[in-house]
Amino acid sequence: MIEFISQPWPWYVAGPLIGIVVPALxxxxxxxxxxxxxxxxxxxxxxxxxxxxxYDWKNGAWNLTLILGIMIGGLVGSTFLGNPDPxxxxxxxxxxxxxxxxxxxxxxxxxxxxxxxxLASTRGLIMIVLGGFLVGxxxxxAGGCTSGHAISGLAxxxxxxxxxxxxxxxGGLIATFFLLPxxx
Amino acid sequence: MSESKNTIGxxxxxxxxxxxxxxxxxxxxxxxxxxxQEMFRFxxxxxxxxxxxxxxxxxxxxxxxxxxxxxxxxxxxxxIPPKVMGSGTRYWLGGTxxxxxxxxxGACPGPMFALVGNGALVMLIAILSAVAGTYTYGVLxxxxxx
Lengths: 184, 146
Hints:
The complex is a heterodimer of chains A (184) and B (146). Chain A has helices at 2-6, 11-19, 21-29, 37-45, 61-80, 91-99, 116-119, 122-142, 146-155, 159-183. Chain A has ten helices and no strands. In chain A, α9 (146-155) packs antiparallel against α10 (159-183). Chain B is 65% helix and 0% strand. Chain B is built from six helices and no strands.
């Protein structure tokens, strides 16, 4: 049991465990799963608000609590159930990334880029700061992120969510095949 | 539609759901930059399996809730507002911006927070940038096509 838990969990375990949260949130308090809303709630806490942030952020306290829990869960998962082995991504991805100069595969992300030292480099700045900015800007423009559109929205068979998810992939493919070769 | 008070008792379930999520995100490696690259390069089924089976389980549950008119535990009706299509521009264009950021950071909003818990503290900078991006959208909103 412990051995199973400390290994990476397969998709058919993780996917359903994630999906069941959508009805769970509805049943707990009629809440719709969507994590990027929290970025808006943080903006609503700031003074000098534009109309879009002119609401009581405390209505989103449940969601901010959820995301605080996600942070704690990350700590629990890595401290007590951590996987000691390098991440088992496919050989094809490894060789593609090696061509871009990424050859380290221990840990969850390339630590030479995603670190304070990496942040001082151009590629680190683009991937962390510009990337983060686009995640926030795009999620609110599209009205949701992976959780709100890809999972909640598609689960409710919403056509706008399908269009948003196609957009997510269009952007991801552009970044992967056109931007990353230039940046890295 | 009564205003719910944010007592510890009301918020605790969400904290627990969050912790549950953070553990699953970590153990299934969906928070890994490498896994997101593998997905956008179509080189493994892992991410597609996770997202696909999550949608399937969520979709079946949502259909049951809708058809049976199941209520929330506090007795209130469960409202699932449909998304407004409008011109559709916001969905494909906003979605594309989001996708660019998703592939660059290798993380969407939830995983960014799980990564901080995993010790990748530099993701706090990505989160701050995402807040700045959200704020920028709020300011530009009246001028953007939706």
